[in-house]
C-alpha cells in the first residue's frame, strides 16, 4: 500500500512540500514513487521538473537546518529513487 497523491489538488509548491513532508514524517520518503500525472502531453515534462526542483530544494533546506545528514551520495540516491527507480520497480518495469 502507498500513500497516494492527487497532484491536481496539490500542484503547487506548498502542496508538493506538504506531501513530501508527510512522507518524511512517516519515514517513507525514500520509498515514495514520485510525481504522478495523468497527462501524456509534452507539457507534463515541466511539471516533473518542477517536482524534482521542489524535492531537492526541500531536502537542501532540511540539510541546512541540520535535520538530516549532509551526505550527498545518500541523498542523491534518495532523489534518484524517488524520481525514477521506485516507480520503475513498483510498476514492474523489469527487463
TrEMBL record:
<keyword id="KW-0413">Isomerase</keyword>
<comment type="similarity">
    <text>Belongs to the metallo-dependent hydrolases superfamily. Uronate isomerase family.</text>
</comment>
<dbReference type="InterPro" id="IPR032466">
    <property type="entry name" value="Metal_Hydrolase"/>
</dbReference>
<comment type="pathway">
    <text>Carbohydrate metabolism; pentose and glucuronate interconversion.</text>
</comment>
<protein>
    <recommendedName>
        <fullName>Uronate isomerase</fullName>
        <ecNumber>5.3.1.12</ecNumber>
    </recommendedName>
</protein>
<dbReference type="InterPro" id="IPR003766">
    <property type="entry name" value="Uronate_isomerase"/>
</dbReference>
<dbReference type="Pfam" id="PF02614">
    <property type="entry name" value="UxaC"/>
</dbReference>
<dbReference type="GO" id="GO:0008880">
    <property type="term" value="F:glucuronate isomerase activity"/>
</dbReference>
Amino acid at each position: 500500500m502507498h500513500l497516494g497523491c492527487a497532484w491536481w489538488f496539490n500542484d503547487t509548491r506548498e502542496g508538493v512540500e506538504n506531501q513530501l513532508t508527510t512522507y518524511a514524517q512517516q519515514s517513507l520518503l525514500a520509498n515514495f514513487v514520485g510525481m504522478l500525472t495523468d497527462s501524456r502531453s509534452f507539457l507534463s515534462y515541466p511539471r516533473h521538473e518542477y517536482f524534482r526542483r521542489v524535492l531537492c530544494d526541500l531536502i537542501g533546506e532540511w540539510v541546512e537546518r541540520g535535520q538530516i545528514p549532509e551526505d550527498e551520495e545518500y541523498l542523491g540516491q534518495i532523489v534518484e529513487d524517488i524520481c525514477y527507480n521506485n516507480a520503475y520497480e513498483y510498476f514492474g518495469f523489469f527487463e
